[in-house]
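G.,

No rush on this.
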Amino acid sequence: MSRGFVKDGDQEEVPMVPQRAFLPEGVPNFVTRNGLDLLLAEKEALIREREDLGTSNENEKRIARNFINAKLQLLNNRITDARVVDPKEQPHDEVTFGATVTIRLGSAGKAQTFQIVGVDEADISKGKISFISPIARALLNHKTGEKISLKREREEIIYEITAISYI
C-alpha cells in the first residue's frame, strides 16, 4: 500500500526491547538447573503480564503486548538454546561450570567466594559470575592451591584458589 493512504497514527511503533545478557555468537548457553528455573519463571511472569494488560486504550494495549512479545521471543531463544550442566557430573577437584570457588588475592588478601553460572543468572551482588567473565575464564580447569593470573591494563593480579565445591 502506498504511504499516501496511511494515516500518521496508523503506523505501529516498533518496541525498543533491551537485549538479554551478552552471550558471544557460537558460545553454548550453559545454565545451572537454577538458572533454567529462573528463565522459565521469567517466561511465566511475562505471559501473566501480557494476559493482565489492564489498559482500556487498545493502541496502548497493542504496544504493550508487542513489547512483551518481543521480550518473550528473546527469552524463548535463550531457553531453547539452554544447556543444563549438572554439577554432579563435573570433576570436583577442578574449577568448571557451576563450581563455587573461593579465591584469595595474594598471600594476605581477603577471600572471595562466588559461583560460576550462565550469563542470564550472573549477579555479582549474589556472588554469581558469568562463565564468560575474565575471572571465570582464568579459573576454569584449575585446582585448589593453584595460582591464576588476571592481566589488567597496567598490572597482573595473582589469585590463589583456596576452595572448590559443587553445591
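When you get to it, here's the other one too:
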Amino acid sequence: MLGKPRRRGHVVLAAAVIALVAVVVAAAALLTSGGQSNASVPAPRPPAASNPALIPVTDAAAVPTTAGITAALAAAVANPNLGTLSGRITDAKSGAQLWEQRADLPMQPASTNKILTAAAALLTLDRNARVTTTVQAADQTRMPGVVVLVGGGDPVLSAAPPGEPTWYRDAARISDLADQVRKSGVTPTAVQVDTSLFTGPDMAPGWDPADIAGGDISPIQSVMLDAGRIQPTTLESRRSPTPALDAGRALAVALGLDPARVTFAPGPAGGRQLASVQSAPLMERLRQMMVLSDNVMAETIGREIARATGRPASFAGAADAVISKLAAAKIDMTGASLVDSSGLSVANLLTSKTLDEVINAAAGPDQPVLRPMVDMLPVAGGSGTLSERFLSGDPKKSSAGWLRAKTGSLTNTNTLAGIVTDMDGRVLTFAFISNNAGMSGRTALDALAGILRTCGCRS
C-alpha cells in the first residue's frame, strides 16, 4: 500500500487543464500579433542546489527529559483530529522510554505493520535470498506440449520486453523464461499455471475488494505479473483480480500461444524443469516494500518467513511466524493480533509500544541484525511515502532529512514509526498510532514527530 495516499487525481487534472488553457491563450495571442509577443518573459530561475551530507551524532548529546517532551507535545497531542492517540518515544542508544500515551493499547497499525514483517525477515531469511520461478513440462504422454508456470512466491515477474526497464528493480522476466523453454527441446502447445505453493484464501480478512481496482492490493498468489499492476509504469495503477493467470497469459504470448487457453494446473506439475528465473535479493525486495509501502511485496515476503519457519505459506502462517519470531527476539508482542503482513486489514491490532520496540531494536546497539531496516525507512522530504511530507520553508522548523519513518494510512487511521535526530544531536525512536482520526489527522500526526526534531526538550 502506498500509505493509502489521499487521491490527488482531481488536483493534477485541474492543473493540467489550467496549463492547457494558458498554452492555448498564449498561442492565440502570438498568432494574432503576427508572431510578435508583447508578454514579458520571466528571468530563468537559478538551478536548485543541495548539500547532502552525513552528519555524525555523539554519545555526549543530551537526552531529552520526559517533562520537556511532555510540555513540547502538549498542544499538538490535544489536536482533536488525532482522534484516539497512542504513542511512545524512546532514546535509541539506551532504549529508555522518554514519553508514552496509551502505549499498551492495541490499535489499527495500517502499513506500519510492515516494520514487523521487515524485522522478522531480517531475523529469519538470508539477506541474499532469491525466489525462483520455474517452467516445467506437464505429463507429455497425457498432455503433449503443455508447459506449466510454477509459482515460487515471486509476485513481480515482469512482461517488459528485453532491454526495457521493469517497474520493480531487478525483476525476473517472462521473456527469459520463454527463451529457455524454446531451447529446451519441447514444442509448447499450451500453458498452465501452478499456484499450489500458497495455501488458504488469497484475500485476507478485513480487506476491501474495492482496493483491487483502487490499486492497493491484488489477490496473493504464488506467481504474479508485476504484483498485479495493470499499468506497471503508472504509480497508482489499478491491480488485477487474476494476477497468476495474467502471468501465464504473458508467457503464452511470449511463446506464440493463445493466451485465452491458459488455465490453472490441476495439481503440482512435477515434470522436467524447462526454465527458471530468480527474483531480486531479499534486501532489495525489502527496500521496495518499505520505501513505497508495497502491500503485495509484504504479503509474499511474509510467506517466505512462514515457509522458513515450517509454517503454511498462508496469511495465518505468515502472521504467526512474524509474531513468534519477534517475540523470540524479546520484542513485547502483548496485544498483537495480525491477519496479514502488510497492514491493509482493518482487523490488525498492534500497540505503539511494540512498533517502537522494533524500531528501537533496529536503531540501538543490541540487535545489529536489524540495523539495515533503518536504511529502508523513507526519508522525510526525500524519499518514498515521505517525499512530500515534513517540508517547510524555514529550515529551523523542518524535519526534512533528519527524520526517517514508516507511514501508514487507512480510513480514519494514520500511523508513523521511525527515528529522528533532535536539535542536540540525540537519536530518538518513536511510534504514533491515530485511530478515529479527523480530516487533517495525518498532518496532525506529522506535527508530533516534527516537534521531536525542533523542540530541544532537555528541560
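Residues 9-32 form the longest helix (24 residues). The two ends are 39 Å apart (CA to CA).

Enjoy the weekend,
O.
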